[in-house]
What does this fold into?
Amino acid sequence: MKLDLSPALATASYRSFRPSMGAAVRVTRTAPKWVLPFPLAGTVMELAPSWREWNLRADMRTFLTAYQARMDALGADRVLGLIRSVVPLGTAVLLCFEALDGIEPDQQKYTCHRRALADWITANTGWDVPELGTIPPPTLDPEPPQALPLPFP
It folds into this structure.
């Protein structure tokens, strides 16, 4: 059964987020120590790992089990309601600190709680929650750009 999922959901890191992606939603216990170049729509502290869960990170599978058990206790309707309370319309982009460049998508949930949350949402709703924050490798242009002629002799 699919639930009504307004707003659409996605994830990204604080550093890779761009306002064109949607509305930024903090899902971390602590805020970035740098000034963000974009406004936050809000914070959903209930979706941030608890300090107890955070201290389990030495074994990410144990962390993941504890974190997802807490999401199970909240339930999909509550989790989505918390996100909707911050971003009622449009795309909510759930942010944390982890850079995921070079990490295979099926392994990201073992590195980053936002991806663990995204997987949990998908498993409990059927809704796809894409990661927007990975930066694709640069492509080499086969021909370098040509210099433009100057407008005067």
The beta strands are 8-13, 23-26, 40-43, 91-96.
